[in-house]
Amino acid sequence: MNQTANRVDKIVVVDDDARIRDLLRRYLAQEGFEVIVAEDAKALSRVMLRDTIDLIVLDLMMPGEDGLSVCRRLRAAGDKTPIIMLTAKGEDVDRIVGLEVGADDYLGKPFNPRELLARIHAVLRRLSKNGEQIALTTGEFSMLKALVRHPRQPLSRDKLAQLARGREFE
User: Fold this and answer.
1) Element housing 10 (H / E)
2) Three-state DSSP class for residue 34
3) Are 113 and 45 in the same domain?
4) Which of the residues 80, 82, 85, 106 has the least number of beta carbons within 10 Å of its own beta carbon?
5) Residue with more model confidence, 64 or 130
6) Nearest to 31 by CA among 160, 90, 136, 118
7) 71 is in which domain, residue-wise?
8) Residue 148 has pLDDT above 60, yes or no
9) At a CB cut-off of 8 Å and minimum separation 6, what does 75 contact?
């Protein structure tokens, strides 16, 4: 069972393709998640008004408001719910834009449901320790990212500061 703080993690799958919604609803429920499906941005808004959501699986290309716009709107409103984008667009620029507007991860279609499951677990794992959410400042996150990108390498304080600021002089 996938639990955070003694409750089942709740995921919303937002996709205009009913087959994908149904496949993911059944698969993720079988893996221990509570799954709600929504066919578009309006349905997602209704779900978020009535439920506390742990993660959103969001299709990029939907009729009406697209996934990028939804992600941008949620982040602008201060919503920190993790978002994994799904899309048939596989170009680097599409992934980069998705991540820049606030998506936590990005997966191209077609995809293996097990890979999506692994990505969901990874995103949820990054958000909590012993069931409690961990809030990091931008600086703390940048330092952690620098350490992860340089595994098993001793880093001086100055070098870590350079890497965290995105200035790598080698």
Assistant:
1) strand 10-14
2) strand
3) yes
4) 80
5) 64
6) 118
7) 3-128
8) yes
9) 101, 102
Q: How many structural domains does the chain have?
A: 2
Give the confidence band of 128 by pLDDT, cuts at 50, 70, 90: low
- The separation between the first and the last C-alpha atoms of the chain, rounded to the nearest angstrom, is 46
Per-residue confidence band for 136, with pLDDT thresholds at 50, 70 and 90: low
Report the C-alpha gap between 160 and 144 in whole angstroms. 9
The two three-digit tokens of residue 32, written as one number: 């221990």
What amino acid is encoded at 49 in this protein?
L
Phi (first) and psi of residue 127, to 5 degrees: -90, -15
DSSP state of 4: E
- Residue pair 48/94 in contact (Cβ under 8 Å)? The answer is no
55 and 101 in a common domain: yes
| Confidence (pLDDT) at 170 | 44
Residues 18 and 56 in one domain: yes
Q: Are residues 72 and 140 in the same domain?
A: no
Cα dihedral 102/106/110/112 (nearest 10): -130
Question: Alpha-carbon distance 12 to 44, whole Å?
Answer: 8
